[in-house]
Amino acid sequence: MGIIESMRLDNKSIFVTGGARGIGKSVATAFCEAGANVAIVDMDIETAKTTAAWLNETTGADCIAIQADVTNPEQVDAMIAAVLAKYGKLDAAFCNAGICMNIPAEEMTFEQWKKVIDINLTGVFLTAQAAGKVMLKQGYGSIINTASMSAHIVNVPQPQCSYNASKAGVIQLTKSLAIEWAKRGVRVNCISPGYIGTDLTLSSESLKPLIEKWNAMAPMGRLGKPEELQSICVYLAGDTSSFTTGSDFVVDGAFTCF
Ligand code: NDP
Known about the structure:
The chain is α/β, with parallel strands linked by helices and 258 residues long. Helix content is 46%, strand content 14%. The longest helix is centred in the middle third of the chain and has 29 residues, at 110-138. The chain contains nine helices and seven strands. The protein has a seven-stranded parallel beta sheet, sandwiched between helices. The structure holds NADPH dihydro-nicotinamide-adenine-dinucleotide phosphate. NADPH dihydro-nicotinamide-adenine-dinucleotide phosphate binds next to helix 2, helix 5 and helix 7.
């Protein structure tokens, strides 16, 4: 089999958190196009159902929508149980749900700080841990977490200390899990996207004026597109990345190079 054929994900079952829209939806689409069946996991069940139905129709994949808040361990366990009830196994997990709050550090309330850390870091831990338990029993599996270039640099001019700290935590969590599970068939990697055009960056009125500033700083002069994260995630979910674990893949158009 040639390398491109080997990269296919035929009959693999994968869940994607934050899969209803944005980066999660785009990567879920690529997983389906590569032959996988995908559970779209999101808090917003109506949009998740629409995304799953659209994927079934456009790619022929057998997708389902599952409502879960990644900060709630019981809901995460129930989500995993629903994935196993549907597909009987779990080949890969994309732990991707995340939020950002732009608030000056000295004004940030405890609740605001905690919300970002709970979703972006604890949520990734809970979903990766739950996926890992299944994969360790199986003896195989690939976990992909979404960090950010904000784990590597402090974005300016917007104040987002909780986001930056949470994403730095995701990288070190990824490496820690990779080491713990390396001999037991479970690989754990993360991606660190630069600014990507999704609701997270485009829907907020307060961020819109910043886009011009970000583009002026960006070596490529533009935001990335969600589709530009697809191929790295297909690679990481599949078997050709068998020696790749504990790695962080920066996909940022060279934003963090200087
Ligand atoms: P979006 O806001 O477009 O999508 C995020 C999705 O996550 C939404 O569907 C949202 O659901 C869901 N979500 C939020 N909180 C939870 C939760 N507690 N449990 C389950 N689902 C939840 O964001 P992006 O697609 O842009 O971002 C995806 C990931 O990529 C995030 O981790 C983000 O930090 C990261 N990232 C994004 C970058 C960018 O520039 N866009 C750059 C670098 C990293 P709901 O609709 O209900 O809120």
